[in-house]
Design goal:
19 helices, Aspartate Aminotransferase, domain 1, Aspartate Aminotransferase, domain 2, alpha/beta, binds pyridoxal-5'-phosphate, SelA_trans, 4-stranded antiparallel β-sheet, 7-stranded mixed β-sheet
Length: about 475
């Protein structure tokens, strides 16, 4: 070892002059190139300090700076193949859109559209009209509007009808949805005062009735989206809450959460409220998410009495919560698909994934496994397993599913999972009992070839990078 190994490091100017950096000077600002060269030299200096032998010449340092620059100009948001089996995976963006909805968003994005213009009259119109028509058609409600998500729907609905007044809610329904969305906090933001009644497991109609004061504006039911209270429990049916509301001249709000528009009960997925049922039970307002069981873009939907919807739309917060043109276009297209419930279950990706028969998934997985078997060093099996719906929906319904369990020679299961996660395309799998599990339920058919390619690269003995 020489006396001063740091002297062996080239200067910034010398690295900048390396031919390996010539393309970088073309496509990146000078300051960015210099910054990455300095960063690469700093990393080397740190390694020297740690006692590592110096292993890089000018060109290697230049190439390292180059790949950092390239990485910087790639978007951080990337497509992910969802092989977890969790259909409504909030971290993976919940519902993938139907092609028609995706195309509608794409066309809206890249050009102009009649967002707030009635083409027949040439006059200004409401951006809500197209989705209002769609929502009324699929839920039977007399009024409807849409905002950015269900949390926003709750805030604006409560603010418009109950600010400065009390809203009665059962203690058994004070949910936290995840990402710190708590019903009591959301209510506080709206300016409505929460009046809790009952206990965690038991709330009776008489509890609601006793809590009513001259300052009560509404009774609210919140769907226990991501948990179930079991055992000795009692909650009040929406119909009974509506009857109580009528008796005392109070509004009834139903926060349905996932909210099925197409009935999934025949497919073994019971337990989520049907939006049309809440409407016909007489709820004045029903709130639900657009990107859960509707299978559309992220948004919050409010359906119910027309006069209340008007009040909500006149609230100044509407300007802050309103949907953008791409979401509106995707939502309208999704709602058009829902006009035929049978077709929606078959064609809307979220619903198709949730209702794929086990036998069909098994056939598909077994024929995919034939391809995977060809990858050198791979051991695999196909077996039945269980998955959950996710996205705070159907928490106690496990969906029978089929998985492909995989291990690769020389790689631990977490190494293989990490390679899949950081590859291109990124693949999210499950890791369980020493294997990586792939569930094809949420892998779109057009992604199978890409998935096979990603598996081949990840299982190769040496990582390509
Ligand atoms: C999911 C959910 C929400 C929040 O919906 P976002 O669209 O994610 O804001 C609110 N309430 C209930 C009951 C839910 O299930």
């Amino acid at each position: 070892m020489s006396d001063n190994p740091f002297r062996a490091l080239p200067s910034v100017a010398k690295v900048l002059a390396s031919p390996a950096l010539a393309p970088a000077h073309e496509s990146h600002p000078a300051a960015a190139v210099t910054a990455q060269v300095r960063a690469a030299l700093d990393r080397l200096r740190d390694r020297l300090k740690a006692g590592e032998p110096l292993s890089a010449d000018v060109d290697t340092i230049a190439r390292e700076a180059m790949s950092a620059l390239d990485a910087q100009s790639r978007p951080l948001l990337r497509s992910v193949i969802n092989a977890t089996g969790i259909v409504l995976h909030t971290n993976l963006g919940r519902s993938p859109l139907h092609e028609e909805a995706a195309r509608a968003a794409y066309e809206a994005a890249r050009g102009y559209l009649n967002l707030e213009l009635d083409l027949a009259t040439g006059k200004r119109s409401s951006r809500q009209s197209p989705v209002r028509a769609g929502l009324k058609a699929v839920t039977g409600a007399e009024g409807a509007t849409a905002v950015n998500n269900c949390a926003a729907a709750t805030v604006i609905a409560l603010r418009a009808i109950a600010a400065g007044k009390e809203v009665v809610v059962s203690r058994g329904q004070l949910v936290e949805i995840g990402g710190s969305f708590r019903i009591p906090d959301v209510m506080a933001v709206s300016g409505a005062a929460l009046r809790e009644v009952g206990t965690t497991n038991i709330t009776r109609l008489s509890d609601y009735e006793r809590a009513i004061t001259p300052n009560t504006a509404a009774l609210m039911r919140v769907h226990c989206s991501n948990y179930r209270v079991r055992g000795y429990t009692k909650s009040v049916e929406l119909e009974d809450l509506v009857a109580l509301g009528r008796k005392h001249n109070l509004l009834v709000i139903d926060d349905a959460g996932s909210g099925q528009v197409a009935d999934l009960t025949p497919f073994g997925l019971p337990g989520e409220p049907l939006i049309s049922a809440s409407v016909s039970a007489g709820a004045d307002l029903v709130l639900f998410s657009g990107d859960k069981l509707l299978g559309g873009p992220q948004c919050g939907l409010i359906v119910g009495k027309a006069d209340l919807i008007q009040r909500i739309e006149k609230d100044p917060l509407m300007r802050a919560f309103r949907l953008d043109k791409m979401t509106l276009a995707a939502l309208e297209a999704t709602l058009l698909l829902h006009r035929d419930a049978k077709k929606a279950v078959r064609d809307v990706p979220t619903l198709r994934m949730l209702t794929t028969p086990l036998a069909e998934l098994k056939r598909r997985t077994e024929s995919f496994a034939e391809w995977v078997r060809e990858i050198p060093g791979v051991t695999l099996g196909v077996w039945e397993d269980e998955a959950f719906v996710g996205g705070g929906s159907l928490p106690d319904v496990s969906v029978p599913t089929v998985v492909l369990g995989l291990s690769a020679a020389g790689l631990s299961e977490s190494e293989l999972a990490a390679r899949l996660r950081t590859g291109t395309p990124a693949v999210m799998a499950r890791v369980q009992d020493g294997r990586v599990l792939l569930d094809l339920r949420c892998v779109l058919e057009r992604q199978e070839a890409e998935l096979l390619g990603a598996l081949t690269i990840a299982c190769a003995e040496h990582s390509p990078s």
